[in-house]
Hints:
Distance between the termini: 34 Å
Amino acid sequence: MGYRALITGASAGLGAEIARQLAKRRIDVVLVARDRARLERLADRLRLEYRVSVEVLAADLTDREDLERVAHRVSEAGSPVDILVSNAGFGVYDGFEVSRIDDERRLHELLSWVPLRLAHAAIPGMLARGRGWILNVASVAAFTPSGTYGAAKAAVVSLSRSLSARYRTRGVRVTALCPGLLDTEFHVRMGEDHLPRLPRIAWADTARVAREGLRGLYRGRPVVVSDWRYRLLRPIIAVLPDRVLERTTTTSE
Length: 253
């Protein structure tokens, strides 16, 4: 029997790349995002190139009814989801003192509540089947004082570690993937007019990040920092004062 994966934020960027890599492994996929037209175009490409079954589920995960519709699909016993990838996200570029509180709430709902809700929907069925994989896309921002985005991603890392410790021996593996800067649409959607002029080496390759995240998930690693440049930085981050980190941190996906 084949496997099926559900990926949120699948219409572009890291989500679309994870969907492609899973389809390449002949894993059927359920694509979730707000833009149905973009999802349909991706679905057509995956079906044509990899001959897998692809479902499209257009949903705004900050809308309660849409979220519950996706949670129902995750928990559906007749066509189970074996691999859950919670990737959907956005950032708030405005400083905390001037940001809109509605935007801050939406950010925390999408980044921390949605992965919890979908994991809660997925795990009972995974335990009953004796197998399951959950990949929660967090960020290296989780380890830095990088505003409300980092706070939400820190919650995702903590949740993933907790679920991994609790359920790994029962066949369910949970991983928090923590990438750094990715060259995707993330910053454009956040509303930045331009990015800092960083050298090319500062940007991680999306395909490599997806590959490392899936590899870590299969191996049962609770936290994966991707890629090598950010793994080198993590020990330094742990010893730098918060005031220094706060001045040098840029919100990343």
